[in-house]
Design a protein that fits this description.
CATH architecture of the largest domain: Sandwich
Strand order of the largest sheet: 1-8-3-6
CATH topology of the largest domain: Jelly Rolls
Number of domains: 2
CATH class of the largest domain: Mainly Beta
Shape: globular
Number of helices: 9
CATH superfamily of the largest domain: Jelly Rolls
């Protein structure tokens, strides 16, 4: 997808004129990252709002014990790093490329706030964005604190279905390259437990693996397991 088309599809920039979209595209800094390479680290100054152009990106938190927790995953067309940019504080977590040749477009914070001053409608979109991030954070904290691991993993799969699910004749395919390690780090559990839970879901006919992707076979049952 062309840069201009990508920017136009992002709700935050929906009120911009074509002229200012062109100016935004001119401001973009394009960078390519290898799998496992960090786009920014926790504590770095939040100078850039980032857009995934291709590949996948995960946001992760490093604990004092050395255990990583994945907070979110992003696919092409999604923005990340926005909470810190709007708050003008350092990035609270690290962003890491999940695929070879992951391409990220970066918008300077200075230009972003220039646009916000010019387009009041962007403030409403920013509030919606921040509200969604706050709700997601509360849900994650609740799940990690009180929910059983089966419910946590089911809730994660449902969220990813909404973000990156594509329906076909086999079910709902998650268009992300997820390993059991990724699922474990998102659910705050061990890889062994994640493997055991996913195996149980497969035996029950809830999910299956196909061509390296997770396919949701029974969305209703997955919702029941998650407690929705």
């Amino acid at each position: 997808m062309e840069k201009k088309d990508l920017v136009k599809k992002i709700p935050l920039f929906s009120s911009l004129t074509d002229d200012d979209i062109d100016k935004t595209v001119e401001c973009l800094k394009e960078e390519v990252f290898d799998k496992g390479e960090y786009i920014f680290m926790e504590g770095d100054p939040s100078e850039w709002l980032c857009i995934v152009k291709s590949g996948e990106v995960r946001i992760m938190k490093h604990s004092a014990s050395g255990k990583d927790v994945i907070l979110d995953l992003f696919s092409p067309g999604e923005i990340f790093g926005g909470v810190a940019v709007f708050d003008k504080k350092p990035y609270p977590a690290s962003a890491q490329a999940m695929e070879p040749q992951t391409i990220v477009l970066k918008i300077p914070r200075k230009w972003l706030f220039t646009l916000i001053d010019k387009y009041p409608a962007m403030v409403s979109e920013a509030v919606i964005y921040l509200g969604r991030k706050l709700r997601d954070a509360h849900t994650m904290m609740k799940n990690l604190a009180v929910e059983r691991v089966e419910r946590r993993i089911a809730a994660i799969l449902l969220k990813l279905t909404e973000k990156a699910g594509e329906k076909d004749e086999k079910g709902i395919r998650l268009n992300m390259h997820l390993t059991r390690q990724d699922i474990a780090e998102m659910a705050g559990t061990t890889v062994e437990t994640a493997i055991r839970v996913m195996s149980r879901f497969k035996k029950e006919g809830v999910v299956k693996s196909y061509e390296g992707k997770i396919v949701i076979l029974d969305l209703k049952r997955l919702s029941e397991i998650s407690g929705r």
